[in-house]
Amino acid sequence: MQSVHTTFNIESIRASFPILIRKVKDKPLVYFDNAATTQKPQVVIDALTDYYKLYNANIHRGIHSLAEEATAAYEATRDTIKDFINAGHREEIIFTRGVTESINLVAYSWGKANLKAGDEIIISGMEHHSNIVPWQLIAESTGAIIKVIPVNDQGELMMEEYYKLLSERTKLVSIVHASNALGTINPVKEIIAAAHNIGAIVLVDGAQSSVHLDIDVQDLDCDFFAISSHKVYGPTGIGVLYGKKAILEAMPPFIGGGEMISEVSFEKSTWNDLPYKFEAGTPNIADTVALKAAIDFVREIGKGNIRAHEDALLQYATQQLESIEGVRIIGQAQHKVSVASFVIDGVHPQDVGILLDNNGVAVRTGHHCTQPLMKRFGIPGTIRASFAMYNTREEIDVMILALNKAIKLLR
Q1: Is the Cα torsion angle 41, 46, 51, 52 positive or negative in sign?
Q2: Can you give the pLDDT at residue 261?
Q3: Which residue of 8, 43, 246, 300 could cross-link 4, Cys pair, CB 3.0 to 4.6 Å?
Q4: pLDDT for residue 3
Q5: 3-state DSSP assignment of residue 326
């Protein structure tokens, strides 16, 4: 791994991301779509290609050298993730295709085995569709009922309403840690403790939080925690589900096939030990190996350093946006990750996004897979600028200048 940074050096960090030198529409790229996916440092790209160039082989069952090297690299990522989120056991780290599959794994494995008619599932009004639709499908098949924690005008959960929803019928709470659409950081430790007090289990969607916040699953005491690799500077197509060992051991398999079995006969099959019971088939080996490089990169720079830089960018962007007449920021929570989501009076978000792209500025426009949340605020969508470790105040200035030009053109 190339040497990174004992202190936060923005020039050195930017030099680690090769895509940042490119131009879009003959303008230097300003990439503010990090909540959708982050760019990849060279060490991640190298780790991905090194697997295919040097030790491409299937894992776990081979006895030749390439298979042993691939297995060791794959399992090293599991150990790295265990430490990254402070899990108690490496067996509690399950590799999936991403947060969406992680939530579906819990919904179909735990949910179908444990939910019955009249049981209640609590989610919130700011959930991503991936933390809504699986529970709707499970509720339809089991007769369970979904309850929703409302969101206030600042984009924060109405915790007093959450406490009212909790009852002996509550079996599971599935909650986003940090909103992809608003940036709101939810009080998940409080949410988890309250749910446990009435005997419910809790799944935390950590797609956005795991890249910005220090995660300690033992301190949170969550039952499940889902992570997306491509949101934390790793490859797409790989994610992680953390689950408490006792709960995972009691759950039936999610997908059947090779690797997840112990013994197979035509009469009956038995299941492999954790974590392999939930990792059927040949996994996404290369991207899993490269995920370790991403986590190592983040840890070497330091989440505290990254968070301080991103918070400063968010504060600056917020001040600049609020100075523009007609701009309204959606989501003014006291505690946020680096997401600035806004609308402009009389202007459609998509039109703004196109004009910003003409100036090399990449933002996300639309409902951000949170249609119920957009409906709550009475809007079709927002313009979302989301910041990462490699972004700068100067890039925000470029966006603000382009935004002012766009507004003059569109009004």
Answers
A1: positive
A2: 64
A3: 300
A4: 38
A5: coil
What number is the average pLDDT over the span 129-138?
Answer: 98
Mean pLDDT across the chain: 95
Which residue among the candidates 10, 20, 159, 369 is catalytic per the annotation? 369
pLDDT tens by residue, 288-344? 999 999 999 999 999 999 999 999 999 999 999 999 999 999 999 999 999 999 999
Gap between the Cα atoms of 179 and 206, Å rounded:
9
Q: Catalogue the E-assigned strands of 134-265.
A: 145-149, 170-176, 201-205, 224-228, 239-243, 261-264
Token representation of residue 130: 């991936």
**pTM for the whole structure:** 0.95
pLDDT at 260: 67
Q: Where are the beta strands (DSSP E) in 265-395?
A: 269-271, 327-329, 339-344, 361-362, 364-366, 382-386
CA distance 23 to 152: 40
DSSP for 372-405, written as a single string: HHHHHTT-S-EEEEE--TT--HHHHHHHHHHHHH
CATH class for the region spanning 10-41+302-410: alpha beta
| Tokens (6 digits) for 335 | 């505690």
List 110's β-bridge partners, or say none.
none
| pLDDT, average across residues 231-240 | 98
State the pLDDT confidence band at 259, using cuts at 50, 70 and 90: confident
Instruction: Tell me the helices (H) and strands (E) count for the chain, helix number first.
Output: 16, 17
**Run of H or E including 115:** none
The token pair that represents 121 in the structure block = 């599932």
> Is the Cβ–Cβ distance between 258 and 280 less than 8 Å?
yes
Catalytic annotation on 222? no
More confident of the two residues 266 and 358: 358
Structural tokens at position 94: 């399950």
Every domain of the chain and the residues it spans? 10-41+302-410, 46-299
Under DSSP, the state recorded for 111 is: I
| CA 344 centroid distance within chain | 27
Cβ atoms 29, 358 nearer than 8 A: no
Q: What is the mean pLDDT of residues 186-213?
A: 98
**CB atoms < 10 A from the CB of 230, how many?**
23
- What average pLDDT does the segment 153-162 reach? 98
